User: Which sequence fits this backbone?
């Protein structure tokens, strides 16, 4: 026979809990003539059995039912399903913490964050000490806070010697210019890269161009290239963020943005850049879109991970109109425009692979080029010529 204090010590429960067990009928105490409540060894064993059942997720009432009658298998299955869900949630929590410590799959975490909360993700990265430029590169390229510097070093080694950093051609730049309703005099070019389009726009229109990029070294190379072509007087390089342009409203006849609006989000870019256009101004914006109703699994997986905001062409057209623009024309870049980009990139990555076999940047680049080669046509770059409504 055991007094209640002795039972409490043996099973690790409080006196109040034991009295509640007794109230539910899980144990049966006896009151002696001296007023003490006592319990038998079978009560202690029943408590330990209940504790084991509780560890499986059963409530006290369900434990009682299981002890007094045949176990309800449906109840056990329900509790098992709940436990499996809790385990999965805890595993996700573990993977998240490992990723944030640089010990797990950080790239998947960053990709998921950019899909569900892109603005908060960018803000988070900047709170971790990254500049906006670094945060944007991490968000879109490395997706790895721990190895970001190494990734970017390898990335620049691949691309620094290449003429193009994105698909395009002189013919299609000229085609887009020919679709403008009027010849511009003041042009704002966002993300000029190495200035291939900058030179064509300057030569074809005679306009003054403000070329904005957040990378000063890129602007320095642009200035050198334009000087060699005798176009320096027409172009003013400006190192600034496309998300916070230090420019006067209604200053430009044309905004030219090839393959860069995705960085801040196309809908946000359309809204943020609109005030800088004159009332009769136009914009040329290019963006990756789905061109088919269904896509191959590999292509869909790649673009969902790399560009979560990729949209079907018609959806993007609807968004453009809702943002306050009229669509003058639009067309897809040709196969040749893509080959101008991805064939040299692929060859450069293959040339470097032997000396950099573990480079994640090279692995990512080759995967990207493989997707372009196999599935181009399901997706493409669309050139949109827009008029401010």
Assistant:
């Amino acid at each position: 026979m055991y007094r209640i204090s002795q039972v409490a010590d043996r099973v690790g429960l409080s006196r109040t809990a034991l009295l509640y067990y007794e109230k539910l009928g899980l144990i049966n105490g006896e009151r002696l003539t001296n007023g003490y409540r006592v319990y038998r060894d079978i009560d202690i064993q029943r408590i330990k059995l209940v504790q084991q059942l509780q560890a499986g997720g059963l409530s006290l009432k369900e434990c009682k039912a299981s002890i007094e009658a045949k176990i309800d298998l449906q109840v056990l299955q329900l509790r098992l399903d709940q436990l499996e869900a809790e385990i999965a949630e805890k595993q996700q929590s573990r993977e998240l913490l490992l990723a944030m410590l640089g010990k797990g799959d950080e790239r998947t975490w960053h990709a998921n964050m950019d899909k569900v909360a892109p603005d908060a993700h960018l803000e988070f990265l900047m709170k971790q000490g990254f500049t906006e430029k670094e945060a944007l590169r991490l968000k879109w390229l490395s997706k790895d806070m721990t190895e970001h510097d190494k990734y970017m070093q390898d990335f620049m080694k691949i691309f620094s010697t290449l003429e193009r950093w994105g698909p395009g051609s002189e013919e299609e730049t000229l085609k887009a210019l020919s679709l403008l309703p009027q010849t511009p005099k003041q042009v704002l070019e966002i993300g000029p890269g190495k200035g291939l389009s900058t030179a064509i726009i300057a030569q074809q229109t005679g306009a003054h161009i403000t070329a904005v990029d957040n990378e000063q070294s890129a602007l320095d190379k642009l200035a050198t290239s334009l000087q060699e072509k005798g176009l320096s007087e027409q172009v003013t390089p400006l190192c600034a963020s496309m998300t916070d342009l230090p420019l006067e409203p209604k200053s430009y006849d044309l905004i030219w943005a090839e393959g860069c609006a995705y960085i801040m989000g196309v809908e946000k870019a359309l809204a943020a850049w609109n005030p800088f256009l004159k009332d009769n101004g136009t914009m040329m914006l290019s963006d990756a879109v789905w061109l088919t109703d269904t896509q191959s699994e590999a292509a869909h997986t790649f673009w969902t991970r790399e560009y979560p905001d990729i949209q079907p062409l018609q959806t993007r057209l609807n968004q453009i109109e809702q943002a306050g623009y009229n669509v003058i024309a639009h067309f897809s870049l040709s196969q040749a425009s893509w080959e101008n980009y991805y064939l040299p990139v692929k060859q450069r990555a293959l040339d470097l692979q032997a000396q950099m076999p573990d480079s994640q940047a090279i692995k990512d680049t080759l995967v990207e080029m493989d997707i372009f080669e196999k599935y181009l046509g399901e997706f493409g770059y669309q050139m949109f010529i827009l008029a401010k409504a």
The CA atoms of residues 96 and 228 lie 51 Å apart.
